[in-house]
Amino acid sequence: MAAITAHEILKQINEARRHTAPPGTKPKSFSIDDLVEADKILLALQERILDDLGLRPQGTKPAKKAKKKKAPSRADRWAEAVGKAKDATSAMLTGCDEVESAIEELKSLKEEYETWKDNLGDNFQNTPVAEKLDAVCDLDIDDLVDTLRSAVEEADGKLDEAENLDLPLGFGRD
What we know:
This protein is an all-alpha fold. The protein has five helices and no strands.
């Protein structure tokens, strides 16, 4: 006899429910989760009956319930969150080096545009090209990396404060 899959059992259960539903009502469909839950209930019931009747084979023990994991404390969650944030700011500081390299390249290109603008003839001063060159030359990117780095360092400093806080433990434990 071939093994029946959970999917086939579910299909049969749902088909039977369709035929037995009262007229004018929609039968409830069952999911795999419903089947798994029903299986757990049946196993627990079987264990209880074996125990109540004293029919459990010798040397076997009832299935142990899985211990619930203790939820992490607020302080542990705080420490984990601070650690994640510090890792992120560390990655951002590393990224600042990459940004600095890209900004240096941008500054070099800006100088090329400034040279182009300086060498523009008088008859090209009021043209769309001159306006675009002015926009490029007026772009202030000199302090961009310092601004970015100081913002990340400030955030890192705040995270150091958060890491070193003396958090409350709760009533009667502080």
